[in-house]
């Protein structure tokens, strides 16, 4: 567990949730991994707009908090795959509800629903 998450646990459960999934691109990463295992390059393309450095940092934090599993295959060139753990998968209802809320808000306020 990261120190930030441990500190959040002393505040309240909402802060724990924000500490774990409230970072640049974290919920988008989780959403993409809900569809299945992805390699780094696939995630970078799927997430869009994220730099390699930020994506790496966010994946490491998600891994440290037990939501993402990183598997390295011993081959040349090296292959790394990311997937959700059972804990990460438990975020599915939250992510789906947030996705639906965002679509509805966008439809009402912006006039279109993103894909």
Automatic annotation (TrEMBL):
Alphabetical list of Gene3D superfamilies matching this protein: Winged helix-like DNA-binding domain superfamily/Winged helix DNA-binding domain
The UniProt record lists the keyword Hydrolase: no
Record-annotated HTH hxlR-type domain positions: 12-110
Keyword Transcription regulation in annotation: yes
A GO molecular-function annotation: DNA binding
Keywords: DNA-binding, Transcription, Transcription regulation
PANTHER family: TRANSCRIPTIONAL REGULATOR, TRANSCRIPTIONAL REGULATOR, MARR FAMILY
Protein name: DNA-binding HxlR family transcriptional regulator
């Amino acid at each position: 567990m990261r120190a930030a998450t441990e500190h959040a646990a002393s505040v309240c459960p909402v802060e724990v949730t924000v500490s774990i999934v409230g970072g640049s691109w974290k919920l988008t990463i989780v959403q993409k991994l809900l569809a299945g295992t992805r390699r780094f390059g696939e995630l970078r393309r799927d997430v869009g707009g994220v730099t390699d450095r930020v994506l790496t940092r966010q994946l490491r934090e998600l891994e440290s908090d037990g939501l993402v599993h990183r598997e390295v295959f011993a081959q040349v060139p090296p292959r790394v795959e990311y997937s959700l753990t059972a804990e990460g998968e438990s975020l599915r209802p939250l992510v789906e509800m947030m996705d639906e809320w965002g679509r509805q808000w966008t439809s009402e306020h912006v006039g279109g629903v993103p894909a």
